[in-house]
Amino acid sequence: MGRRKNPFKGRQFTSEVILWAVRWYLQFPISYRDLERMLADRGVTVNHTTLYRWIQTYAPELDKRIRPHLRMTTGSWRVDETYVKVKGRWIYLYRAVDARGQTVDFLLSAKRDAAAARRFFRKVLKQAHTVNPRTVTVDKNAAYPSATRAMKKAGELWRFTKLRQRKYLNNIVEQDHRRVKRLVRPGLGFKGFHSARRTIAGYEIMAMVGKGQVRAVSVNDMPAQASFIASLFGLAA
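Now predict its structure.
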């Protein structure tokens, strides 16, 4: 979906309606049917299956367009995994926050092993808003020492990065998981891995906006948030 093309071309509804619906779904614990009723209350008739398609299209697009505007996170990472249900199976969601509780990054993975941990760390380190960490605090999962050793040996991770396996220090990221859980719960799980990945990307990037991680938007400033997101798509809020 290129910036030069109209990302809303061919849609039956206006860009304002679509972005309003997408923003609300990705920030609040509501189902597609809840959102359908909310729009109906505003005089807009949209089927819940259409709303699902909007999320699948625009959630990853928001993730892509918002990332260049994120503030830098710190070099003190708290890393942990939580679980989401996909097609009746539990899948692992790797997440990291910094010492201030700002989201560093996330990765959905079918496995919980050293290879998955390395994929997550590699993804984090590629982002413009992250730095090579001074400390990485994790739980007792043996995959993390293996992953960090291999990455240091390969020159992918700063060789002075300190790995701390202290679960009590990870309360900040464990508490942050609850927000994701609240958002997932109304949908009763995901029907497929890729739909889960796209939706969760929207949950996470909009959480970053809500936390004030975007340079142009203060914490929980909904009008500024709406204006910022409209500007990403070349629209006036």
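Helices lie at 15-27, 32-41, 48-66, 114-125, 143-153, 171-184, 193-210, 222-232.
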